[in-house]
Design goal:
The complex is a heterodimer of chains A (about 290) and B (about 350).
Chain A (H helix, E strand, L loop, with lengths): L1 H30 L6 H17 L5 H24 L7 H23 L4 E2 L9 E3 L4 E3 L1 H23 L1 H11 L1 H6 L4 H26 L2 E2 L5 H14 L4 H21 L5 H15 L14
Antiparallel strand pairs in A: 1-4, 2-3
Chain B lengths: L5 H25 L5 H26 L7 H21 L5 H27 L4 H20 L2 E5 L2 E5 L12 E5 L13 H19 L2 H11 L1 H6 L4 H24 L12 H14 L4 H17 L7 H14 L4 H18 L1 H13 L2
Antiparallel strand pairs in B: 1-2, 1-3
Helix pairs in contact in B: 1-6, 2-6, 2-9, 2-10, 2-11, 3-4, 3-5, 3-9, 4-9, 6-9, 7-9, 10-11, 13-14
The chains are: A mainly alpha (about 290), B mainly alpha (about 350).
Chain lengths: ~290, ~350
């Protein structure tokens, strides 16, 4: 039963990683940049939700919606101001800019909200699920996190394969030049990707803080790094890869914490990543592109 | 007299920069013009300069994005602390000797770890390489978090559980898991720092200007072309990576010996990123740029201290602006305008032609 509990908790944590990783992987796919500020958008989303509930007294659903809208706007603004001028710059310059944005968001949060951790009360007040005569107790947060991840995945898959905007996105990530020639507005497509990624980050932030209820300006950075690892594990640029990588990483982390030790759990996660990458250098579902001379 | 080449000039000016900075600081500090807080920053500045120069060897010269440089720094730092504690216990009193031996051992251990990490890492490329170096940095940090080392008359004691299981009665604990290395003798001085900076610069510049250095840059510029003329790609990438790790280890020793306590979580991903920022701002592959950027950006938060609450926010804004502004259309037009005017004034006929050429570039 213990194994099953850990497995479900791992899937829940992994679902959060997967939702964050989707943002990483979509941005990487289209803009070829590692958006290190993505983790901090999670933190901003969680803070918006926290403030909406505790200071404005909004109901949970409205608070989550507000967080999603706030982060979407934030994503678009950051992209316009900081990343758009660097569209043709070397990728390292973009990386440093993203790091600058990450510092900016963290320190802005520090000034506005203070450094003391806020305790985030779970927005989900449903009773826990009891199975096998109460031997297996699954909290509503866990269930809802997994459900949210599945819904997001299905919606995104539908969006990228069936809608015009989604097709434009895939075209841009495959060949930006050719997409421009076909009349696709690359700039607005990239903005769209940032908007979707940041909106998802807000959802991930709320779910993460519902499960682990301490909210600080640095809350987003470690899940951000782990989700980035998950995106690479699944094959960066691939949407199903991000989901698979996220869930796997979450399960590995929870099992490592339970059976190997909390101190060393992160080391195990990263070691698994290294071994996986040595076996499959392009990630689990990534395409191995051969160089032509 | 033999004509001095451009590279020699650039090398001489790099050394001169360090020495002039050293003399300037000594003169100013003699005149009492350097504040106490800045005085305390001198050794860390030297350490960060060494780290930036060594990371530049990987990122700028070899062209691999490494996000785990702080990991090697921490390996050096903790090794150095152990060596220094053992030497002090063995009755060695000369601080310079203790530091020199610790720095060499720290560098060797970090270099060996760099080599071990490098062998699998060098199979990967680009962003995958970046994430694996990040992962190694985190693994090193996590492992240091569970290591307990103590020393007594019987020798070194090692445990991965807690400080009690070291089984010592009267020994001193050197490394205490997540609490880090405690009770370090603060023996680093600014002079030692400057010497280490000069050594680091000498190693990197000599490597860059050697046959191996040209091979490393050839691999960076075009791996396939380099391979086809018989350059052993893996060997040279690994060489740059291991040398940089060793230098980072030595810098870590310098850094650690400036504080009485260091903890593993100091050497995290953010620390690696900080060093990377120095390299990118200083200019990829430009050793002098790395030195200036590292020194300036270490001092910057100190200079911004009057606006204490907002200084890191301002630091972030400066970082973004430095990256973004050169790519703004307004700025490019402004630079072009100035360039055209200057050129017109210097030589009317040549100026017009050069401005046309200049305007198309940034």
């Amino acid at each position: 039963m213990e194994i099953l509990t850990n497995l479900i908790n791992g899937m829940s944590l992994g679902s959060v990683y997967a939702i964050i990783a989707l943002g990483y992987t979509m941005v990487y796919g289209i803009a070829k940049m590692l958006n290190f500020a993505h983790g901090d958008v999670i933190m901003v989303g969680a803070y918006i939700c926290f403030c909406a509930i505790s200071y404005l007294g909004l109901p949970a659903i409205a608070a989550v919606l507000l967080a999603v809208v706030g982060c979407t706007v934030l994503g678009i603004v950051v992209e316009r101001l900081a990343y758009k001028p660097l569209r043709d710059a070397p990728s390292l310059n973009v990386l440093i800019t993203a790091i600058g944005v990450s510092y900016f968001l963290q320190n802005a949060a520090l000034i506005i909200m203070g450094s003391d951790p806020k305790s985030f009360s779970s927005i989900i007040s449903l009773p826990a699920l009891r199975l096998f005569d109460g031997k297996l107790v699954i909290s509503a947060t866990t269930v809802l996190t997994i459900v949210a991840c599945v819904v997001v995945m299905v919606a995104l898959t539908f969006f990228t394969t069936k809608t015009k905007m989604g097709k434009a996105m895939r075209a841009c990530s495959e060949d930006r030049g050719a997409a421009t020639l076909m009349g696709i507005n690359v700039n607005s497509t990239i903005s769209m990707v940032f908007a979707i990624g940041s909106g998802l980050a807000a959802i991930a932030g709320v779910l993460l803080c519902s499960a682990y209820p301490t909210l600080m300006p640095t809350t987003g950075s470690m899940p951000g790094i782990k989700a980035f690892t998950a995106a690479v594990l699944g094959g960066i640029g691939s949407i199903p890869g991000a989901a698979l990588g996220g869930v796997l990483l979450g399960i590995i982390e929870i099992f490592a914490r339970a059976y190997i030790g909390t101190q060393i759990a992160d080391a195990v996660v990263f070691a698994v990543l290294i071994v996986m990458l040595l076996i499959r250098p392009a990630g689990l579902l990534g395409k191995d592109i051969h160089e032509k001379v | 007299m033999k004509k001095i080449s451009k590279t020699t000039w650039s090398t001489i000016s790099t050394y001169a920069l360090v020495i002039v900075a050293f003399i300037a600081v000594q003169v100013l500090s003699g005149a009492g013009l350097i504040s106490h807080s800045l005085q305390g920053q001198l050794v860390p500045i030297c350490a960060y300069v060494c780290l930036a120069v060594s990371l530049n060897l990987v990122v700028g010269i070899s062209g691999e994005l490494s996000l785990g440089h702080a990991g090697f720094m921490s390996v050096g730092a903790f090794t150095g602390v152990i060596v220094a504690a053992c030497l002090a216990r063995a009755g060695v009193e000369a601080e310079v000797l203790i530091f020199a031996v610790s720095a060499v051992v720290g560098a060797v251990v970090a270099g060996v770890i760099g080599l071990i990490v490098g062998i699998p890492v060098m199979r990967l490329r680009g962003d995958y390489l970046a994430i694996v170096t990040l992962a190694f940095g985190e693994i090193i940090k996590n492992l240091l978090n569970i290591i307990y080392i103590g020393v007594d008359d019987a020798g070194l004691h090692f445990s991965m559980r807690d400080s009690a299981s070291l089984g010592m009665e009267q020994g001193t604990i050197i490394i205490n898991g997540p609490k880090g290395a405690v009770g370090i003798d603060k023996i680093s001085t600014f002079v030692m720092g400057i010497v280490l900076v000069l050594i680091t610069v000498a190693v990197v510049l000599n490597l860059v200007h050697s046959r191996s250095g040209r091979a490393i840059m050839a691999v960076r510029d075009n791996r396939i072309a380099a391979e086809s003329v018989g350059i052993n790609v893996t060997k040279y990438r690994l060489m740059a990576f291991a040398v940089a790790s060793a230098l980072a280890g030595a810098a870590g020793v310098l850094y650690a010996m400036n504080y009485s306590t260091i903890i593993p979580s100091q050497f995290d991903f953010n620390q690696s990123i900080l060093i990377l920022v120095y390299v990118v701002l200083g200019g990829m592959g430009n050793v002098r740029g790395s030195i200036i950027a590292a020194a300036f950006l270490t001092v910057l938060p100190e200079l911004l201290r009057p606006i204490n609450d907002y200084r890191m926010l301002l630091y972030a804004v400066v970082l973004i602006l430095v990256m973004v502004v050169p790519h703004l259309k307004v700025y490019q037009r402004f630079v072009d305008m100035i360039r055209v005017r200057v050129l017109k004034r210097s030589a009317a006929s040549e100026g017009a032609a050069a401005a046309e050429g200049g305007a198309s570039h940034e």
